[in-house]
Amino acid sequence: MKREYCTQMEAARKGIITPELKKVASKENRRIEEVLPLVAEGKIVIPANINHKCLDANGVGSMLKTKINVNLGISRDCKDYDIEMKKVMQAVELGAESIMDLSSHGDTTTFRRKLCKECPAMIGTVPIYDSVIHFKRDLKELTAKDFLDVIRLHGEDGVDFVTLHCGITRKTIEQIRSGSRKMNIVSRGGSLVFAWMSMTGEENPFYEYYDEILEICREYDMTISLGDACRPGCLADATDGVQIEELIKLGELTERAWKRDVQVMVEGPGHVPMDQIAANMKIQQTICKGAPFYVLGPLVTDIAPGYDHITSAIGGAIAAWSGAAFLCYVTPAEHLALPNVDDVRQGIIASKIAAHSADIAKGIPGAREQDDRMANARRALDWDAQWTEALDPTTAKAIRDSRLPEDDHSDTCSMCGKFCAVRSMNKALAGEVIDIL
Hints:
- Helices cover 49% and strands 8% of the residues.
- It has two domains: 8-362, Alpha-Beta Barrel (TIM Barrel), CATH 3.20.20.540; 405-436, no CATH class.
- The protein has 19 helices and eight strands.
- It is globular, with a radius of gyration of 23 Å.
- It is of the alpha/beta class and 437 residues long.
């Protein structure tokens, strides 16, 4: 039976309550009547390709719980598909709402189709990466039609959102060549578009053929994630003219997509000092009319290789509190290597801490309930209940079990032993003797 709508946005504008919208409202503890108009306006997106049959739908919007994305994929130097699928399943188990397949080597089609067939999280891709691999031709040999054909292929396979670097144009080439930036372009997709334009002399195909791309995305209800090719790659480049000019273009492209009922997210920085993060979120919300903001980090310092999951969690918490809707995780391997399974785990937990902290600060309904249950468990010195509420119970339990106190370890830890403040207060308030020695 033919659907009455093509996209989640079109359905909402027609007043049709889709199964995906109903699920999102339920997950967010919101009334359907609250969510429906926000989807219609583009302030909430529900990335849900019609061909992703096993999807457990989620909504992305600043008024909802902050979502996190996990980047994965095969590279020429790390090409074990089984390990990548292990990362995928770990990410889903840890509560990641989205997986981005950034594969740049090998049989990308088989891996992508396996993801869309088996993974319930939202699936995202960057089609320009896959174009070189799919056609087995180097960048200069590809045509605008080739890029569009790969976008369609990803839509057919079930990809829920595609990152497209539509906002840079030939004018950007001159801006970058002027030498005003320390790090030029650090977006991998953005650099490929820049290189293609430089080598061919043609306009950015994702900008020039944007209307055709919108029709493809409308057909499969594939959300566009407008990539920030000019995101700052170091603190010195944050909030500069190149970044802001691209953002203005992304705001225009957002409105063009909405006219076709195509859902849009807008990607953001990057490396940004703490004192500029809130302003960046406000500028995006204004220019892009409230379209959900999807940020990488932001990383608040440039000097912590090996610990960038921490620098990004600091920035991500501030960004989400200030209006970002979607955090792309960063792992300890950022700037250094393809992340391994443990790196992925650390990146996810750091990002989830940032997202949850922001949700509490934003007053998201129910966000603090888990924290209150943890406080109750700690007051009762109920270790099993604490594992239930912990974001990463495996790590928490392993740390405690590796360093148990010699005596009475049912209610204390090896940090304080019988000097434990909680134990002393419980006994004092119960009128019991507080035995220390």
